[in-house]
Design goal:
Ubiquitin Ligase Nedd4, Chain: W, elongated, 2 domains, 0% helix, mainly beta, 89 residues, binds iron/sulfur cluster
């Protein structure tokens, strides 16, 4: 999953397009690719969890495969992670 300023813990959302980078003290566009920003700190969201799997033909919706004993549960990649979050590699 691509990573942007909006995925960074340092980004305080200002509106739907902009945020404040608390590490660098400047306004950022939320959809700016983080590239190799050395201050990037990834937020914990389903889309960055090792149990998240993308659904075919879906951009924002996937499934949680945490519990192998139950059917997969639909989750949005942008959902704030639950307590079972494990960062994907
Ligand atoms: S630390 Fe880097 S990636 Fe994070 S919000 Fe600031 S500029 Fe964006
Ligand atoms: S619901 Fe929890 S375990 Fe499942 S993908 Fe999201 S953060 Fe990971």
């Amino acid at each position: 999953m691509a990573k942007y300023c909006k995925d960074c813990k340092n980004c305080a959302t200002f509106d739907v397009f902009k945020g404040n980078c608390e590490a660098l003290g400047k306004r950022v566009i939320l959809d700016t690719p983080m590239d190799d920003c050395s201050d990037y700190q990834q937020k914990e969201k389903c889309g960055f969890c090792k149990y998240y799997a993308m659904k075919p033909k879906e951009e924002f919706l996937g499934v949680c495969r945490k519990d192998s004993d139950v059917p997969d549960v639909d989750v949005y990649a942008e959902l704030v992670a639950c307590n079972d979050f494990v960062p994907s590699a």
